Amino acid sequence: APRFWEIVTNEIKELEVLKNHFEQENLIEKGRIGAAGTSMGGIVTLGALTQYEWITTAVSLMGSPAYVEFFDQQLAFMREKKIELPFTEGQIEQQRDKLKRFDLSLQPDKLKMRPLLFWHGKQDGTVPFALARRFYESTIPLYETRPDLLHFIEDERAGHKVSREGLLKTVEWFDAHL
């Protein structure tokens, strides 16, 4: 848990390494690059959209675009449970500041109307459903001319596990938009 956000931001940086490798091997067709992830991978995917315009379409399954708010919720949970934090207040503030660079909720204009699909279970107790849903609703005006490029699927019964429908919708999304 203490290294969660370090891992997330490192994975975002590693995406560029992967992209460069596939580019060198001529394995990218006409610049079409999609990104998708589940849970932490969905969080990485959404943060990557703030860094890389070369991602042409994305799917977040149980991810959160609101890095700073999620970070603060995690801290509040740990403090409520009286879990001793291995960080000073200064280090916590430093981490919060670092996350702002990757927080899509703070810079939704970076979406640039790229196709984006969300899938999230309403009963998710690990990655808050509300953060993803609120972000989606706030970005609808950005897709006013192309509402087909933004979609949110909420599963009423699902917790922190992607349904078969979620996986099939991911495949359909990439088939249609990549």
Automatic annotation (TrEMBL):
One of its GO terms (molecular function) is serine-type peptidase activity. SUPFAM superfamilies: alpha/beta-Hydrolases. It comes from the Bacteria. One of its GO terms (biological process) is proteolysis. InterPro entries: AB_hydrolase_fold (IPR029058), Peptidase_S9_cat (IPR001375). Residues 14-176 form the Peptidase S9 prolyl oligopeptidase catalytic domain. This is Prolyl oligopeptidase family serine peptidase. It comes from Bacillus paralicheniformis.
